[in-house]
Task: structure prediction
Amino acid sequence: MRLIAYCAVAGLTAGVLLPQGSFAADILGPLRSTLKAAPGEDTSLRWYLRGDIMRSWYRNPKSQYTIVSTTPNIGPVEFRNEKIRPLHGASVGAGLRYRFLRFDMTCEARNAAQWSAYTPPFNNWNYVGPFPVPARRDHISFTSRSVMANIYGDLSSWHGVTPYVGAGIGVTRFKTSGLYISNPLPQTAALGGAVQTLSNGKNKSWSPSWALMAGFILQVTQHAAIDLGYRYINLGRFKYNHFDPATGQVFTILKTRNIVSQDIRLGFRYQFGKPKQAARRNTFAVTPKGVFGHTI
Result:
C-alpha cells in the first residue's frame, strides 16, 4: 500500500510537471523548430508507461557512530569494513517522448537491505589488551523509497535496437528497522562480551538523490519496447536515531555517508498513440537534359 501511495504521488507530480496536450505543443514548439527532424523520423509527442525490475550492488559506505550515554559523549568513531548486501527492487513510472528525447518520473522501492560494520573494543581502534580489534560486528536493516525525475537521449537505432544515455534527480526516503544489534566476535564473547541492542529509534529520513544511466531499447512493436540498462545512483545518506527514555532526548548514533548503488535494470515500456513520420522533402536539379525531381 505504501508503494501505491508513492506511485500515486509520482503520478500526480508527473501530471503537473510534464507538459500535456496543447500545452505540451506550446512548450516543445521552439524545440521542434530548432531541431529539424530527419525524413521518416517519428515526430509525434507520445506518452508512455514503464515498469522495471532491478538488481542492486551497493558500494560500501563510510559510516560513524557516537556514544551519547556517557558524559562527555564519545565519538564520533569510524566504523570499519562496512557492507551492504546486494538486493532487488522495482519501479513504475510515466513519461513523455519527443523524437530522441524522453522525460519521465518514476517511483521505486527496494527490499530490506542489511548494513553491517566492525567496531573496536571500548570505542578505541588503538586499544591494546585481551579483547580483539575489532571486537564486534554491528547490524541494522533499512529500506529505501525513491521518486526520480529523469531525462534520456536516444541515439541512432540499428535493426530496432536503440542505445541511450540519461540522468535523473530526486529524493529518497530511508527507514531503518528500529532495532540496532551489536554482536560480539567469538573471542570477544569468550571474554564476556554480550549481544547489545538499541531500539525505539526515530528512524525515518529523507535525502536528495541523483543518477546516471545508459542502456539499450529493443522496439518490439510500435507501442511496446524492452529496456535493458545500467544505472549509477547516489541515494544520499541515512542515519539511526536513538530515543533515550531517561532524558526524553533523541540522539543520532549512526550516520552514513553517501549510499551508492550500481543497478542492472530490465524494463518494459508501452507508448500510446501512433508514430508520425516527418515528411520527405522534394528537391530539383537542373541538368543539361532538363529538370529531374529527387526525394530526400
